[in-house]
Amino acid sequence: MRDALRPTLWFVAGLGTYGVSAAHGPMWADSSKLTIYALARYYPTLNPGDHPAWSLLADGWFHLVPWLSAVRAAHLLSALAGAAAVALMWIVTFKHTQSAARAHTAAAVLLVAHAMWWSSSLAESYAPALALALASLVFEGKTTSTSAASGLFGGLALATHPFSIVITLPSLFRQRRKLSLWAAFATALAPVWLGVLHTGPDPLTGHVSGRAASWIWHIQEFLDPGRAIQGLGIVVALLALNLGPLGLWSLARGKRPSGASPSRPGLVVAAAYAGLLCLYSPFRLHLMILFLVAALLIALPPRLSRTGRVGHVCFQAAAYVLLPLILTAAGLGSLGVRRLPGRRNAWYFLCPIKAGDHGPGRYATALLAAAPHGAVILADFNPGAVLALVQRTRRLRPDVHLVPTAVDDADGAPDPVKALATRIDAARDAGHAVILADRWEAYYHTAGLASRFGLSLVPCGPGWRVVTSRRDVAPRRPLPPA
Question: What are the Cα distances from residue 230, in Å, to 216, 282, 323?
């Protein structure tokens, strides 16, 4: 009875921490994209970036909490999954070590790991994928029914996020002779493999993905061996941020008790994943590190005293507030990455508390309100996903034609400036005012648009209206779909 109560208390602690921290409104990039996917029931799909099982889970979750807005419900799904992951980490560690102290330490370290807290405070696929992967380990056993349950959760985890395999692979290998495991695993992967039969257009971009070209694009876009040294530095820094000094010390003391199952397979898989992260595009590493943190906690069950656990939780929580304060005061608040309207980078990326961040929703609402009647808004993925979600869920400005990834599409052309200018001219020739969602030079090429095509920008709410020396005309005819 006591052993059942302990993970329940950790679940309550996680739900309280993440639920209070969870965002209330739309958030940038993938968070808005995933919410749109769930609303559109975008599954099955073979595309590795579509996370079809997340869409399936979120769709079901929306029906369980119909009184909540879809945006708020999607954020709370991550909070619920994050809390479940913390409790399941306690169970997995206790199962492997029979040590309550180690189980408490593993749960405490995971609870305040930066990637765990951050991804549990807004709609993301990481917390649900980790919870499902840990559930797969809980049900690892010798009987047919437990192996089937392990395979079911492992397959769902993989369909929620492909990198969850880092957690489940050693367990799957240990159960490799269990037919019931693989039957359940294949069934749970249905949101992915059914994409062979049919994948509908992406509800955000309109593209049909999941073909070989999509996989080749992902590999070329996100993996670069030339980033290995820089990536290693980022991975080490992120591990330090997630684990903190006491968490690192607890792992150093994490040798398994005698008689416990060996940790070598888990360490091998964790090392291979760390190597992959060193080559990966940096902009998602602050979340992808979560699976590495969890894998290390499983392979090296940590150990701290009760005082050490309390100190670790307090230190990590304080660090996530003090770090952005110090960096902002030192003039380093941009973190050297792109700035979005209303986004304070140091606070956004380093502080996992999202409940008070209303910037993305305000930005999207203001831009849609400022756009002239019948305008065309050309955006890149980061603001484009937020604009699409706000327009859809709040039913704002149906007269505005939003192209949420037009700038990304142009950036992939041989001449990005010309491709973007051609799209602008097509909309203007049809009589539509054209608004750029942002003017970040690396994407929007404003200098090239001005020097090569005579296009300049004037403010339009938080966006920018494209103008030339000629007089802008009123819309005359509808613009064809993108």
Answer: 23, 9, 22
